[in-house]
């Protein structure tokens, strides 16, 4: 865990922000955290934890949480809200969120940045764009597209992909037909070489030629492309996902945390993020600021053109009883 | 009142001193082992009130006992393999003259000092489709398609054997070293051939080391996490991975604790069974 402090150090108000570390946290420090701290005149202390969810729970369970704002996959904010781990948000104090679509926020969360689970593939294996795989149905079609495949060892987005492969339209996915999805997954299972568990692993599998096709996060594959690897990906039928910001129940610096939340989705700060890393802004107004060059917009998962081609993940469904049951079914599926 | 024997008084004072000296260690063990394990056990019986729900789940849901089964199977395989590979190495080290014995031991110990994560990744690089092993086999025309050496149970076993080999070799070596050479000579002078003396004299005397090694490797494999996570391809779900999924994904600390308790009970049972055959102090290398 790295503790970093963001300017200005002398400010009276401070808060603790927790994110996932690595290149991502560095990028948001430059794009969002530092400018927000400066504008608000507060000190933002940082911590990073790859799996914040179990710690969020134990923080609140102790009765004296030290964390204020957490940046996690949206479903954890929603589940935290249900379980009394996350504060209910007062959106009248977060005016910047007004420009965001309703499905980008909930009582407990506010979308912070977007990434996408996309289909990536090897250009060595499929060099010709005309005959390359384009849909999840293609990913499932082992006769037309022979090769080794890898999916994430997690039901989120994987079930969505399976249903799209089975012919469900991207905007008709929810509520997910879980039985149908698992049935479709059984079909592809013998051809899955690896069920990956970390983003780094998914990139490595594709880069080393261990697999020819993979469902991976767009940023992981675009990083490989930048390094000159012969790989590419498509946003077509991608599953658009977000991390959200939420505030721990009983956060020691609640008012400061809410002030920060509003600043974090400020269109200009949001527009700065994709200049640092391959993630899309959560506030659509960021695309109107003129900060992001047109060529860059095309590469971002949340850009209007790209978003249209994709399915938007429903975190509300995943935190429902049906969603949690589907999650539990996953381990049994992976093991058999 | 009768006078106390001065030597007895001295002994008592020494015992008191020993207790005082041991107290920091005792405090640390209580704080870092006894209390957390107690908390873990409490969690496993608690879900808003006393419940056996978490234990019921282990026996009723497929994934749990399947993972237990797989974990024990892998532990068994790994233990047998490390014995087969480790025994000759320990034998050679125990019988070699200086500096050769040190050289053999350093080959065992150097990898032991390398991070488990690094070794697991190294095996990934060696064994994957485009890895060294497959490329060599292809170059010699032994295979036409790369073998699936990793991202499955095989890869997990290979790496685990490598990582745990020192835990087999070191107790074997320490036992073998203490076997008097004269006994072998005596066996030979009584007409036993090399194989005969080995089987009748050396092997039985090395058994405490064997049992120590077997126990250590078996128990350590039961708790393996990183290796199956990295080399198992997502299909080799060992019990520690089920624990972590329960905490990370499902937020079911009770279920995770129950699995932990069951595993702990298994390990203690193994130790008790083994200590019936060979006392623990003997196993841990004292005379």
UniProtKB/TrEMBL annotation, chain A:
Coiled coil start-end: none
Matching entries from Pfam families are given as: SBP_bac_8
Q: Which UniProt keywords apply?
A: Periplasm, Signal
- From the Swiss-Prot or TrEMBL record, give the protein name: ABC transporter substrate-binding protein
């Amino acid at each position: 865990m790295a503790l970093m402090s963001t300017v200005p150090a002398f400010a009276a108000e401070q808060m603790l922000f927790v994110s996932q570390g690595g290149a991502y946290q560095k990028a948001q420090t430059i794009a969002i955290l530092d400018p927000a701290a400066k504008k608000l005149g507060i000190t933002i202390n940082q911590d990073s934890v790859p799996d914040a969810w179990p710690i969020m729970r134990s923080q609140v369970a102790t009765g004296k949480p030290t964390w204020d704002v957490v940046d996690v996959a949206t479903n954890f904010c929603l589940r935290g809200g249900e379980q009394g781990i996350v504060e209910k948000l007062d959106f009248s104090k977060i005016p910047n969120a007004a420009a965001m679509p309703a499905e980008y926020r909930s009582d407990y969360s506010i979308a912070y940045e977007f990434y996408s689970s996309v289909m990536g593939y090897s250009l060595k294996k499929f060099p010709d764009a005309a005959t390359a795989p384009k849909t999840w149905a293609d990913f499932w079609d082992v006769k037309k597209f022979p090769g080794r495949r890898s999916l994430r060892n997690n039901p989120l987005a994987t079930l969505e992909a399976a249903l799209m492969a089975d012919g469900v339209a991207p905007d008709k996915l929810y509520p997910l037909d879980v039985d149908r999805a698992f049935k479709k997954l059984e079909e592809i299972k013998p051809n899955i070489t690896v069920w990956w568990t970390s983003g780094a692993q998914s990139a490595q599998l594709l880069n080393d030629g261990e697999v020819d096709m993979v469902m991976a996060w767009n940023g992981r594959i675009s990083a490989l492309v930048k390094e000159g690897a012969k790989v590419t990906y498509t946003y077509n039928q991608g599953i658009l996902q977000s991390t959200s910001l939420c505030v721990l129940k009983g956060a020691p610096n609640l008012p400061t945390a809410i002030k920060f939340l509003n600043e974090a989705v400020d269109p200009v700060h949001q527009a700065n993020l994709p200049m640092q890393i391959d993630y899309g802004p959560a506030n659509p107004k960021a695309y109107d600021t003129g900060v992001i060059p047109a060529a860059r917009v095309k590469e971002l998962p949340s850009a209007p053109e790209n978003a249209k081609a994709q399915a938007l993940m429903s975190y509300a469904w995943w935190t429902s009883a049906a969603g949690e049951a589907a999650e539990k079914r996953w381990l049994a599926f992976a093991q058999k | 009142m009768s006078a106390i024997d001065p030597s007895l008084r001295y002994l008592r004072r020494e015992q008191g001193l020993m207790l005082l000296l041991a107290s920091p260690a005792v405090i640390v063990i209580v704080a870092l082992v006894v209390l957390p394990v107690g908390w873990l056990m409490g969690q496993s019986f608690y879900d808003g009130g006393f419940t056996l729900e978490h234990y019921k789940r282990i026996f009723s849901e497929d994934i749990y006992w399947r993972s237990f089964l797989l974990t024990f199977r892998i532990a068994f395989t790994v233990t047998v393999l490390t014995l087969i590979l480790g025994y000759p190495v320990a034998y050679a080290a125990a019988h070699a003259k200086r500096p050769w014995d040190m050289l053999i031991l350093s080959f065992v110990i150097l990898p032991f000092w390398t991070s488990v994560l690094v070794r697991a990744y190294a095996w990934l690089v060696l064994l994957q489709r485009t890895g060294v092993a497959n490329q060599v086999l292809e170059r010699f025309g032994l295979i036409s398609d790369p073998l699936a050496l990793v991202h499955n149970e095989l890869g997990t076993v290979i790496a685990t054997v490598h990582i745990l080999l020192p835990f087999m070799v070191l107790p074997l070596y320490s036992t073998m070293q203490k076997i008097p050479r004269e006994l072998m000579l005596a066996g030979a002078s009584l007409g036993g051939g090399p194989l005969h003396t080995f089987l009748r004299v050396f092997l039985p005397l090395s058994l405490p080391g064997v049992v120590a090694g077997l126990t250590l490797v078996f128990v350590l494999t039961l708790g393996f996490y990183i290796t199956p996570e990295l080399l198992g391809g997502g299909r080799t779900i060992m019990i520690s991975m089920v624990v972590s999924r329960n905490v990370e994904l499902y937020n079911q600390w009770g279920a995770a604790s129950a699995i932990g308790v069951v595993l702990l009970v298994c390990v203690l049972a193994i130790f008790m069974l083994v200590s019936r055959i060979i006392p623990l102090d003997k196993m841990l290398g004292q005379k």
